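=== RUN LOG ===
request id: a7f3
mode: sequence -> structure
chains: 1
length: 185
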Amino acid sequence: MRRRGFTLIEILAVVFILALVAALVVPNLDGMRERALRAEAERIGAQLELLRQRAIVTGVPHRLWMQLDEAEYRLEWQHDAGDAASAALDLTGNSALPLEAPRASGIEYVPIPGNFGRLQIVQHPFFFQGLETPDGWITRGEASIEFERDGTAAFTEVYLEDPSGHRVALDVRPLDERVRLRDDL
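=== RESULT ===
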């Protein structure tokens, strides 16, 4: 009686085919991760460009606020805290005027209304490696990139990295007023 099973040659052929497929696929996985890291950096770069343009159009300073440890960021602009109280007033004369003293107003950074101001998280497994600012290298805690009313900002480099050590940099360039993406290997 003959046993059913695989011969050694059949098993070796399957192992060879699997090794060949793995040899073709594994190098591409690294390239896919590099492309995804670059795409994430491009997304943040587009947000920085949006902030610059909004600062110019509105004449109000804007900033990209970042929590480096949590890889979170948010788009913010300066807003007068007293505006909320005055916006609630009914100027048609149909309601009583409040007689209490006005609250102290102060200009502070607040999230931009709508989806742009919501907290965003850098796509996993990427993270902020750090920022190079005129004040030095920042790797932990909160940091921000501020755009003045005319869209200018101090030169800043934002570094994004993946766990395997691939890194890209976003350069906020004040002289040519643009954000440049570069691979930083």
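=== NOTES ===
The domain at 32-77+112-183 is CATH 3.55.40.10 (minor pseudopilin epsh fold).
The CA atoms of residues 57 and 145 lie 18 Å apart.
=== END ===
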